[in-house]
Amino acid sequence: MRKAPRLTQSIEIIYAFVVGSLHYWGTLIRSGLIYGFSDAALGMVFFLQEAKGLSKNGSNIEQVKIEKNRGNVPYGKGLSFIWTGLLSLCVASFLSIKMGVVYSISSLLLVTSLTLFSFYHVFLVLAICLSSDRNETYKGKWFYAYTLDYLIRNPFKSLFILMLTWSAMGIAYFNLILFIFLVPSIYWLLIQKGLKVKL
Hints:
mainly alpha
């Protein structure tokens, strides 16, 4: 009988992760998949914050609502467009190798695109997390100068984001259902805990 509350709590946590992930994909799709990465990620950060607050108060997770106007990433749509373009280049390079198109050129393109995407993804994730920090005072272009400085001064945090990202990609490759329903929530939760950004 004592295990029932733990089981209930575990089910509620999994349910919260699934709801958060569905909100994430919904925001991404509503943005046309091209311009929505920063909005979807920031929405996920705020969702996890609200879910954490409700769990402390013993409230139901269904009361969580993502507040779209709580904050945004400066130039977020443009940055999301670049992120989508780099990701598409990585996928195209990978597919060209699979189809046997000039192997040496495709390999060079894949390595280059993966390197650019990895660096840019870490930069954008840091920008999203730092923009969600309520104590953040940097705005506009200065905000991105601060983000770049943060990235360079914290190589282990950057490496943590990179390793977490490639782990998520590995899960997507081996189990797409798990990736869709759980990975976005778990990914951003681990990012917040790893970076220790105050929300």
